[in-house]
Amino acid sequence: REPMPHALMHAALNSIAELAIVPMQDVLELGGEHRMNVPGVADGNWHWQFAWEQLQPTAIDWWRAHVAQSGRAARSGEPT
C-alpha cells in the first residue's frame, strides 16, 4: 500500500481516463502550505511556482517507473 500522495498519483495514472493530471505539489510531496488555490479566498491564489531544485532523484525515479508501468510513457517515434 502506497502512502499519500503516491496512492493518488498511482490511481490517476492507472485510471481509464485518456488524460491524467497530477499537481506538481504532489509530485514533490509538498505540504498544504504549498497549495495553489484556497477555495473561498479571493487573494493570494495561483502564485505558487516550481523550482527545478525541488525535484529530487527519488521523485524522478518514482514518476518514471509509474508512468511506464501505467502505459502512459511516450514510445519512441510517437508524438509526446
Description:
It is a single chain. The chain is 31% helix and 0% strand. The chain is built from three helices and no strands. With 80 residues, it is mainly α.
Brief summary:
The protein is built from three helices and no strands. It has helices spanning 6-13, 24-27, 57-69.
Quantity of strands, as a count: 0
Number of helices: 3
Radius of gyration: 15 Å
List low-confidence stretches: none
> What's the end-to-end separation, in Å?
30 Å
Mean pLDDT: 89
Shape assignment: globular
- Succession of helices and strands: HHH
Please indicate the percent range of residues in DSSP E strands (runs of 2 or more).
Answer: under 5%
Helix content: 25-40%
The main pleated sheet reads as: none
Which structural class matches the secondary elements? Answer: mainly alpha
Keywords:
mainly alpha, 80 residues, 3 helices, globular
Topology record:
Elements: H1 6-13, H2 24-27, H3 57-69
